[in-house]
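User: Predict the full complex structure for these chains.
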Amino acid sequence: MRPFSTVLWVAVILGSGMLHAAEVPVEHPPFKKGQYVHHAPTVDDLMKDQEIKPQLKKVILKGRDIFMNTQQYRGKYVFSRLSCKNCHLGEGRLNWSGPIWPAATTLPDYRGKNGHVNSLEERIAGCFSFSLNGKPPEYGSDMMLALSAYHQWLALKAPVYETHIGGRGYSSLGKDIPKDIHYVQGEKVYQAQCAICHGATGQGKSVEGKVVFPPLWGDDSYNWGGWYGAGFTRRHRSSRTTCRLASLVP
Amino acid sequence: MMQVYRGWLFGAVLALTGVAHGAGDPEKGKLIVTAGDGSGAPCVACHGLDGAGNDLAGFPRLAGMDAGYLVKQVRDYRSGARKSAVMSPNVDDLNDDQIADVAAYYAALDTAPTSLPSGAPGTLALGEALATKGDWDHYIVPCETCHGPGNVGVGSDFPKLAGQHPTYIKQQLKAWKTGTRNNDPNHLMLAIAGRLTETQIEAVAAWLARQDPKGGK
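Assistant: Here is the predicted structure of the two-chain assembly.
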């Protein structure tokens, strides 16, 4: 017992020493009671998975590629300068940053927003039309198939039709708009926290034509259905948290 | 109508010359590189006239880096916002114009990178994955998200990493981790460095150092 506790103490001391090292904490809201937390698989997991046929792996990887670099379809399916991954951070896997796999475990389902039972493809199409300022690929097309396969594979082993999902969507700052919110104050926050990446006027930054920091508004961003279109509360809560949660903004 | 147009044009010309003025004179810069700031050692002694630096000694490569970034760093050494016992005494007597001049000199250089022996494939693969895909499960954003495609840098805020010496890259990442470098805007770099393990630091430095500073493959 003695040697063990000594080892333990050394570990604790080393541990606290490491905590002293400089670090920026990741601030996430706590998961609620009764929610389950899904750990979406990684590409490394996919490559190692013996159960998934090589032909399917190829299609999943194509879906991932479309998701990560949707700009390859600029002018055809995308008219903004955004890619899916710009809003759904960390390959669409990251909790609190718009993980995409819940759509694969909860759809088809009835959505009050459009008044009918929606499919996964329809959800994906919605993000093309409204978040990418684009035109969705045909239902049943190779592109749609690849994208759905990517969503579904990310949901691997998650329970179907279970909606108590921890970290779904973006962390909410609440539904009520604070009374003291003010344009001038917002501009100050923007210039101090966001402008270094998204540019002084929110136009984004590119290097040799490739978008590095995406634009936040206008034709190069999205028209109305992204979070800006979904009402002020949503904009208020998601835009700040996207970058916060990726710890792009500590 | 014409009047308004001319007014704009005049403004634009003024703005342009303004920028050109602040940009520094590489010819004057070259003199400072060889003569130094008057009290410390001349830059050439450590960074070289060609800005190649030296890997083993931990002297960074300055050739082809963004002038605005270099200016910020030298000013930070001068003010004490960035500390280095070896480096700071060499620049603390430079004035703003002189700093702009040296920065313009080094930024304009097109020096070939020093060649490194081929690294261990496993290490390089890990380094490449960190730089281009990140390690999101540990909130490590890919380096190229901020340092740009090919990690060649984005403007004056996000410096070029491609082709930088591995020893220097490692030193800087560890300096952030231990709190000895903290001049990064909004602690953007601290957030990343603080989460990197020793193995990851080793790997990412090895991979970045072997990339083309101009972004070619």
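Chain B touches chain A at residues 133-134, 136-137, 139, 141, 145-146, 148-149, 152, 154-155, 157, 176-179, 182, 185-188, 190-191, 194-195, 215 (CB under 8 Å).
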